[in-house]
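Before relying on records like the one below, remember that each one covers exactly one chain. Contacts with other chains, cofactors or solvent are not represented anywhere in the record.
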Amino acid sequence: MLNHPVPKKRKFLPEEFQILGWESLAPFYKLLLDKKINSSEELCLWLAQRSELEGAISEDAGWRYIHTTRDTGNETYKKRYEEYITDILPQIMPLSHQLDEKIVQSPYTATLAKEVGYDLLVHCLKTKINLYRPENIPLFTKIQLQAHQYGKIASEMTITRDGKELTMQQAATYLELPDRKLREEVYLQMHERRLRDKAVLDELYTSLVQERHNVARNAGFANFRDYMFVELKRFDYTPQDCFKFHEAILETIIPLLNDIKTERKKEAGYTTFRPWDDAADSQGRPPLQPFQDTKELLEKTIVVLDKLDPFFGDCLRTMQEMGHFDLESRKGKAPGGYNYPLEESGVPFIFMNAVNEFQDVITMFHESGHAIHSFLMHHLPLNDFKHITSEMAELASMSMELLTMNYWELFLDNPTDAIRAKREHLESIIKRLVWIAAIDKFQHWIYENPTHTKMKREEVWKNIVDTFSDYITDWDGLEDIKYSLWQKQLHLFEVPFYYIEYGIAQLGALSIWKNYKQNPKKTLQNYLDALKLGYTKPLASMYETAGTKLDLDRLYILDLVQFVREEWEKLL
């Protein structure tokens, strides 16, 4: 039986209502603003009506975004997305602020705030009210349009190989081939293409940093970093905790990364280990080919999820039935991958750029974790309860990567390939944690020093990337590439400060995996219980429900690194 979420029947909006521009929405905002609230029950009803309206808007905006990322060159999609950003959202923001104030100022809110979930909601609303500045609305519009340019620029990056035009994702598959000379040629070709847009991306980033700084200053903050810590509801940790995380990564994970690279260099028999050797199998085996096409990728993913928990497989079957997947890489498609929660229907959309490599399988499980999270939160009465922080969202997705590892054999021909895939994934987690620390440290400096020059930015990145690098990889003659690698990270352009969350969640996911190896049934139940909470409890409390903890200290990280090292050594 398919796990169809029961659509919440509209009670405030007409069932046939469609958003046809701001004029179609304005009357409903007026109704909410004018409504008199005379009891706690009426406040609950009013909150439900607002949630219904915002759910419809969120889903409409979601489809506009999805369409434009699926086809970045489509002018109709572009215009509809820009209509939302330039015409609809700027009208909504001041009215949304007034609605927030209406809740906080209601005499019945104090009673409601005693209930689980609503206490956190009121706290978040007060925080949001304090951040609001009408003069920032046009800046938000400008920033969103500029940030969207990054995806368009990146989507148009291609190289030609063997007479074929390849996206960067497609070209990257060549870096897994045994032919070392070919890998070198493709690697250099890819980065030569990236460097052609370096100046454009430098200019774009400089503009984004300045506009974001203006937003922060308007809101009374010294810098955009401090503003974003409040905006992102980081109530459980501080910038100083992030700095501790950076240092802990250097002390605990860089040594393991060096050992990993040393082992790979030794297995390959190379005198030097170059960047184009990083993705290839160190024993000279061809790349794993876990599926022939995205149809097979989806089908096998569902089989694995069924084995973990039939509910998980049902979630993806529902999405498949509704056509909520776009999985293959192609020219004109935005880079990266995402799960987009569609709040009104309750059925999310998964977007990725699969090129038939095993990383696609991991990405699929990652995004499936997000999707299942969306299904598990659908029962919550308010959309605000589904607006989880990124640290919790990524815990769901990164844990799913590891919880499915026992079943990866279903994608591969033999147990040896499964061992290889698991080893490669553990190695990628270690590399990822180091990269997360580097990118996060870079962002702190960027926004603490918003008037920096391009030259100074390059100098700071050079120091950071050299510090957060293994000492095995030989970058001789490739300095231009190494010192512009940050431009590959779309988060810097599109979602600033959304990156440390991956590190926090990765540590949590490793802890959950460690628990799963000891008690699978209990660990899976804890995972489900935590995801069902949505955003009704503080982050640290939800991590505890999941059976892990929110901790960025060195000793906690050291314990997890030792666990990963032991698991990695079993796979050698």
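The chain has 24 helices and five strands.
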